[in-house]
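Narrative summary of target 7.
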Amino acid sequence: MSRVLGVKKGFRFHEWNNRINRMSYDFVICDKAATVIAAIELDDKSHEREDRRESDAKKRQSHNRCWASTCPLARQVPAG
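Modeled conformation, tokenized:
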């Protein structure tokens, strides 16, 4: 997530960077100017495990605090 998210002014950079540094999105959708306009998470069966649910909750919280107003996070269960 740290490759596409910035830390908002007023937040402690190192605290937030450490929180999102090892998190990732499965896909990001960009416009022609390479501005991220949406992030996509694929929720396969592994996301049913307790540890993954906790990780997903932290990712959702971090995303919402940084980007919720400008970049939606779509969660998708793969077909099949």
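Residues 47 and 53 are 6 Å apart (CA to CA).
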